[in-house]
Design goal:
With about 375 residues, the protein is mainly beta. The protein has one helix at about 1-10, and strands at about 35-40, 45-55, 60, 70, 75-80, 85-90, 95-100, 110, 115, 120-125, 135-140, 145-150, 155-160, 165, 170-175, 180-185, 190-195, 205, 210-215, 220-225, 230-235, 240-245, 255, 260-265, 270-275, 280-285, 290-295, 300-305, 310, 315-320, 325-330, 335-345, 350-360, 365-375. The protein has a single domain (about 1-25, about 125-375), classed as 7 Propeller (Methylamine Dehydrogenase, Chain H), CATH 2.130.10.10. The chain starts with a helix and ends in a 9-residue tail after the last strand.
Length: about 375
């Protein structure tokens, strides 16, 4: 398995190179019609698979025209809060692909001027909750590329001063729900860079005290922020653990949570928190399973969910939870498929959905499960 993963995720200084990016929340309103879609990045076939999601059963149905072409060795996928545009970071072509989204079908269409140049080996992309800015972790140039987003066309324009220096091999990036801070997981330097975000210009400024140590040897692989913005979690790829930090919501500074790091399976490659903020899920690529944790709402500490870990396919690289918190989906890189689970809303336990295995492209390494307004909102009027 390691040989296969090394072939798919080439990086000079580690066996496997892929990240889990952080995401934002949504408004939770009830007076708007929504469509739900899942997008899977297929790194080995340079495509993105798209599915519509049945919110009653969790079943996925392929979107017409799927899969959609991406750049070389695509790594991550994110959409803006208005649901109009999607972006993919392409490790092998050092750029970002931009797409317009058909909000009724979920189909993707490349925008004008796409792709947009990024740094070297762009590993992960995140978008601010305002939808104004995009940030890309560039693994081989050790920096973060920052872009402003044209809300009409989706075009990306470099922010003044971009790129901004990060640690050694930034491989994951997440923006907090308030849009005030962004956090970068630096794989080789095994730490987390924290930046404040200028709300007008999108410029990044290092938070005093940054970077913050994770486990060693090279470990800080993926990062996410919980929906409350109080906690940050980092998947430590080679230490088989998750580091947890509390966030100073005024300064963005991080403080290790008591008991951190918390044991996970072997080779954790992504960490995600469900929309309620009650549970965290970690994809363990070498033990072929998902570690599930309950989150202490006061401290951020993690406690293993009864029954954890839960079996996945071969080479699980990414786990995602749908915006309703009902279902979890796992991208299995060796099996070239996605497996689906129901989530026990009380315990956080996962149960495989009967027939819930879906073929995708080669080397699926990232999955986004999104809720899109239909019709799409106007930014500034509807969140």
């Amino acid at each position: 398995m390691k040989a296969f993963l090394a072939k798919v995720f080439v990086l000079a200084f580690v066996t496997v190179a892929f990240v889990a990016c952080g995401g934002g929340g949504d408004d939770g309103s009830t007076d708007t019609v929504y469509e739900y879609f899942a997008y899977i990045v297929n790194s080995s076939s340079n495509t993105v698979s798209a599915f519509s999601l049945n919110t009653t059963t969790g079943a996925l149905t392929a979107v017409a025209g799927s899969p959609f072409a991406a750049g070389v060795l695509p790594r991550s996928f994110v959409i803006g809060p208005a649901g109009k545009f999607a972006y993919v970071s392409n490790w092998g072509s050092n750029d970002v692909s931009a797409y317009s989204i058909d909000t009724s079908t979920g189909a993707l269409a490349a925008t004008a001027s796409s792709p947009f140049p990024a740094g070297l080996s762009p590993a992960c992309i995140a978008i601010s909750p305002s939808g104004k800015f995009a940030y890309v972790a560039d693994a081989s140039s050790y920096d973060v590329s920052a872009f402003s987003i044209n809300s009409t066309t989706g075009v990306l324009s470099a922010v003044s001063g971009s790129p901004f220096p990060a640690g050694n091999s930034p491989s994951g990036i997440a923006v907090d729900p308030s849009g005030k801070f962004t956090y970068v997981a630096n794989l080789v330097s095994s730490d987390v860079s924290a930046f404040s975000i200028d709300p007008i210009m999108g410029v990044l400024t290092a938070v005093p005290g940054s970077p913050y140590a994770a486990e060693v040897p090279p470990n800080a692989y993926a990062v996410t922020v919980d929906p409350s913005g109080k906690f940050v979690y980092v998947a430590n790829a080679n230490a088989s653990s998750v580091s947890a930090y509390s966030v100073d919501t005024t300064t963005g500074a991080l403080t290790a949570v008591a008991g951190s790091p918390f044991p996970a399976g072997t080779g954790p490659r992504s960490v995600q928190v469900d929309p309620s903020g009650k549970f965290a899920y970690v994809a363990n690529v070498y033990t072929n399973d998902i570690s599930a944790f309950s989150i202490n709402a006061a401290t951020g500490a993690l406690t293993a969910v009864p029954g954890s870990p839960f079996a996945a396919g071969s080479g699980p690289m990414f786990v995602a939870v749908d915006p309703l918190g009902k279902f979890a989906y796992v991208a299995n890189a060796i099996d070239n498929n996605v497996s689906a689970y129901t989530i026990d809303s009380t315990t956080g336990a996962l149960t495989a959905i009967a027939g819930g295995t879906y073929a995708v492209g080669e080397g699926p390494t990232w999955i986004a499960v999104v809720r899109i307004h239909w019709p799409p909102p106007i930014l500034g009027l509807t969140s």
